[in-house]
Amino acid sequence: MVLSVDLRPRTEIRQDLTINHQAIQAIQILEYSQEELETFLQDALARNPLLKETEQGAPMPPANRAAQFSAGSQRRGSGETPDLSDTVAAQINLYDHLHRQLGVLRTTPELKACAASLIDSLEPDGYLRTSLEDLADILEISPALLEEALALLQSLEPAGIAARDLAECLEIQLRSKAQLTPAMIVILGHLHLIERGEIERLARLCKLSIPALTANLDAIRQLNPRPGLQFNTEPTQPALPDILVHTGSEGRIRVELNPELLPRILVDRSYYTELSTQMQTREEDRFLQDCLREANTLVHHLDQRMHTILRIARVIVQNQADFLFDGASGLRPLLQKEVARAAGVHESTVSRTVANKYLLCSQGLLPLKDFFSTRIGDELSPGALSAAAIRQRIKALLEQESADDILSDDAIVRRLQADGVDIARRTVAKYRQQLSIPSSAQRRRQRRLPWNAVSPTTPVKTSPCPR
């Protein structure tokens, strides 16, 4: 009896696995953010001797040829793409700022050391939320010395630093301005009455008239409840744009990949030729061939990534051209399936492409996913608005309301319906909450405060003590 074994199915399985592995790599490379892609490429360069990085000034791949199209002949203006450095705020460290001030003070080394420890215990907003008793135990020093160090620290700039609660923060600032009167002390002890709008009761406690109380409250309004937040204590690397969009005259728009972020990886064929003459065993030759195949596949997938990002970005910008000139009010309803159909790709490809990708245009640096928005109103109506545009309209309406005309959600619905926008009350409430705008009752209470300085779109704080 002869046992026959057919090896062909095993070969087919291996081919399928290879194809699947390549497909997975293509998907991963498309979905990677710039940081993730850089990490992946550095690892690939370390593993594969046939991959090499090109010079910074090397010619760009064909995928980066600028894509141009006309977005309409009648535009109200044009804009240049802002410089990315303009979008990054200067980074100043609160702790270094305080340590420098402490360093020039004339006091004992022991007191300076205690104050330095307190600086390092501050929260980013400038508050000291760890009790002095606990810190005294940790640092193994007397509470009296720590109290003295705290007083020293609270004398530094910005005023209000190292406070243990909101009242103390405001008290320090008022004292520095020579405005800490007996009436102010009473006010600081009853901040909850300000939040509840019980102004008459507060005036009686302070023994002040309403106009006099209003003047005191106006002075408090000028203070900073979180003095440490003017410093960026945790610098973060800003996102870099994958796509650059330039708007010019006559509605001309140019879309291109950011040349500074394009992967510069090539297959080193000269080195392959050199190594191929030195292979002495079948295993060495197989390893070299595997390296060549992997290198070619990787470069192909990188080129595919660039072409796909650019193609989808072009479709997005074509559909959202009005946004470049009009801002959020010009953002039209756009679904990923619409972009997929126009770009000739699968919807999942659009989803992976826009993930972790950024676009820099006249409106600033924005995630690609922000250009997608659901449609409000008749699905077939050409005038249907996006959810983002509706939110912008709601915000504009509430910014224009007066103390005598606070708009309820029902009133907002009626205003929008009068403009042809068919929207439900619950949708208005949802969008208002997404904008962090308080309810009409909360806004009405805020407007009744004597100083009447709260913006209608400022969220109501539920506690007088910052968290």
Order of helices and strands: HHEEHHHHHHHHHEEEHHHHHEEEEHHHH
Structure summary, number of beta strands? 9
Q: What's the story with the biggest beta sheet? A: 5 strands, mixed
What's the Cα radius of gyration? 31 Å
Shape: flat
Widest beta sheet: strand line-up: 2-4-3-6-7
Helix share bin: 40-55%
Walk me through the structure.
It is a single chain. The chain is α+β, with helices and mostly antiparallel strands and about 475 residues long. It folds into three domains: about 20-85 and about 240-370, no CATH class; about 95-180 and about 220-230, Arc Repressor Mutant, subunit A; about 380-445, Arc Repressor Mutant, subunit A (Orthogonal Bundle), CATH 1.10.10. The chain has helices at about 10-30, 35-45, 95-105, 110-120, 130-140, 145-155, 165-175, 180-190, 190-195, 200-205, 210-220, 270-275, 280-320, 320-325, 335-345, 345-355, 385-400, 410-420, 425-435, 440-445; strands spanning about 50-55, 65-70, 245, 250-255, 265, 360, 365, 375, 385. The protein has a five-stranded mixed sheet, with helices on one face. Strands 1-5 form a two-stranded antiparallel sheet. A hairpin with a 2-residue loop joins strand 6 (about 360) and strand 7.
Q: Topology of this protein?
A:
Blueprint: H1 8-31, H2 34-47, E1 51-53, E2 67-70, H3 94-103, H4 109-120, H5 132-139, H6 143-153, H7 166-176, H8 182-188, H9 191-196, H10 199-206, H11 210-221, E3 243-247, E4 252-257, E5 265-267, H12 269-276, H13 282-319, H14 321-326, H15 336-343, H16 347-354, E6 358-361, E7 364-367, E8 375-376, E9 385-386, H17 387-399, H18 409-418, H19 425-434, H20 440-447
Parallel strand pairs: 3-6
Antiparallel strand pairs: 1-5, 2-4, 3-4, 6-7, 8-9
